[in-house]
Structure formats: structure tokens, C-alpha cells
Amino acid sequence: MASQQVVRYTLVFHTPLEAVETCKAAIFAAGAGRYPGPGGYTECCWTAVGTGQFRPGDAANPHIGRVGALEKVEEARVETLCVGEDVVRRAVDALKKAHPYEEPAYSVYKMEDF
Q1: 90/96 Cα distance (integer angstroms)
Q2: Which of the pair, 50 or 103, is modelled with greater confidence?
Q3: How far apart are the C-alpha atoms of 89 and 15, rounded to whole Å?
Q4: Are the C-beta atoms of 21 and 97 separated by less than 8 Å?
Q5: pTM for this predicted structure
Q6: How confident is the model over 2-57, as pLDDT tens digits?
Q7: Predicted pLDDT of residue 16
Q8: pLDDT tens string 68-90
């Protein structure tokens, strides 16, 4: 009988630079960034800096900028591994609690193992 593979996910999120370390600490505490295997690697991620933009709508309560005005912000894009659906769900919940934005930008991708 073949061994059961745990499903892996990539969590990607964007955050203003002043909140990067807070968001990373939250997702890592939830179990994100741990690689399976003998190395015992933890807190693994990839981070790049770029420019995000958004225009808050009439009902928004923006952390940065003001309603109706186009805002451009230097942000970090962070990518990390989550092993198991329970881990990615906990990491997303932790991210939402730690992130300063009203609506954090994030994506979750299910990975294939070839």
C-alpha cells in the first residue's frame, strides 16, 4: 500500500513593509514555513519588495490612504510553504489577525508533488 502524501500549499501575501515581521511571526507561529524532512527547517519564506496599489471604496476604512484616492504603497510579497490544510487555514487566520489592512491581499495555491 502506498504511503499517504500530506497535501502542501503555498501561501502568498502582500503587506506594507512596517508589518512584514509581525505578519511573518504570526504565520510561522501557526505552523507555516516548516519543511518536512530530516533538516527540521522552520520559518522558511521568500520575500520581495514591490509597489502595491489600491483605491478604497466609499464604505472602506483604509489603514493607509483615503477613500476615493488612488494609493501606491511599497509592500512586501511573502511566499511560504504550508504542509496540510489545517496549517494553511491556521496561517491565513493568523495573517488576517496580524495584518494592518482592512482586507489583506493573499492567495493560497495547492501544490502538486511530481
Answers
A1: 10
A2: 50
A3: 18
A4: no
A5: 0.90
A6: 456 789 999 999 999 999 999 999 999 999 999 988 999 999 999 999 999 999 99
A7: 96
A8: 999 999 999 999 999 999 999 99
CA distance 70 to 53: 7
Task: For the sheet with 71-83, list strands across it.
Answer: 46-54, 71-83, 8-16, 105-110
Q: E strands within the chain?
A: 8-16, 46-54, 71-83, 105-110
Helix 85-98 and helix 20-29, axial crossing angle in degrees, nearest 10 = 150
CATH assignment, 16-110: 3.30.70.120
Tell me, what amino acid is at 6? V
Nearest to 54 by CA among 38, 33, 68: 68
Residue with cell 521568500: 46
| Identity of the residue numbered 19 | A
Amino acid identity, position 79: E
d(CA 33, CA 79): 9
Q: What's the length of the chain?
A: 114
Cell 504542509, located at residue:
83
